[in-house]
Write a structure and sequence with these properties.
GTPase that plays an essential role in the late steps of ribosome biogenesis. By secondary structure, the chain is α/β, with parallel strands linked by helices. The chain is built from 14 helices and 16 strands. 34% of the residues lie in helices and 22% in strands. It is globular, with a radius of gyration of 24 Å.
Length: 457
Amino acid sequence: MTQRKAVVALVGRPNVGKSTLFNRLIGARTAIVEDLPGTTRDRIYGEAEWSGVSFVVIDTGGLEAQKTAEYRATRAGVAPLARDSARYVTEITNQARIAVDEADVIVLVVDGKDGLTAADEDLAEFLQQTTKPVFVAVNKAESEQRQLDATEFWALGVGEPIAISAFHGIGVGDLLDVIAAELSDSLVGEEREEDVVAVALVGRPNVGKSSLLNTLIGRERAIVSEIAGTTRDPIDTEIIYHGQRVSLIDTAGIRRRGRVEPGIEKYSVLRSMRSIDRADVALLLVDGVEGVTAQDAHIAGHVLEAHKSVVVLVNKWDIVEKNTQTMVEYTRKVRADLQFLDYVPVLFVSALTKQRVQKVLPTALTVASERKHRISTAELNGVIQDAYHRSPPATKQQRPLRIYYATQASVEPPTFILFVNDPELAHFSYLRYLENQLRRHYPFVGTPIRIRLRARS
């Protein structure tokens, strides 16, 4: 059973500390923090948890008006670089609007040091158009005086100001409390029935997702229902394939009506990301002509982080120039570029000519079945102990890692617990070795497996 994670979007004008707050919320430094408008141009996402509530945090680029951007760029004093930042205003604004559209909760980050600005008021007016809950995080409120001054942001009319210091962590717990309370009260579960396999078609625009979907639902299969989602959700099409209910989640509808703004292709990442969270299996489409791009790798990275099963589909194979070795070489390159291992199936298809499309659903269902595979405790310990004795781990601090026994804790994905003398003695390369040994006996096709270490009490 899959549950969609709630989405919290951080929005605000440039340089108010969104990236610092993002890092504080997810407990990592994955965003580059630089004192220049437009630095955080790409939406960055990460997972957070507070009071038992898990959610996705989105760090958007700053929202600011064109004239404001040009003024700040001129004032920054590094004219060529700073003025380049102004060119990203349209892209940043669109990105933040998309993030707001996707979010369950919005956090408007303002600068307590600068105080209330006209740009903040413009952003608040923009946010008043949404029915989503909005919280105002007054950042850089380290001093008692700034915490008192934070009340002036009530004038924005979008929510209660919460004084914080993202850098020092002051007040962040209070902000997380109200976010978690809001998410707990909202219905964001979206649970599915157990007998339905959810398959998400993900990838950049124009790689052929819609064409593939149309081909899949048109090949002598009964369409059970076509469920139009909300403005935030892709369209799910439920079909029956050889007696198995399959929910096909299409993310091709990312483009909005009207003019396509610059940078629109980047906006598909978030929608694809949320579709992956809802899915059992992700069909990652790659353009066979263009090859793997940075955005493909971005989406693939989330597949890995979400521990979802995956099948890579290299589309438009009918127009790729090839010889007898092209497929082998292309497979090797795809896996290297996407950091996938040998357990991931790679199919070369053409949604246009239907070449090998008949293999897509059988492969997806095989992979979905592998997610539920269980290994008996006796068999598991036999494989692990054999691998351990055949290639013992290197000692660390003159202490060897000892593996006492193993058990499979869960499925979807298969998760194994190894009870050891000291988890700190295990190097990640040895865990990779154990994973490879497990896959020699139980391939877990297209499915990630997790190995967790626990000290024996």
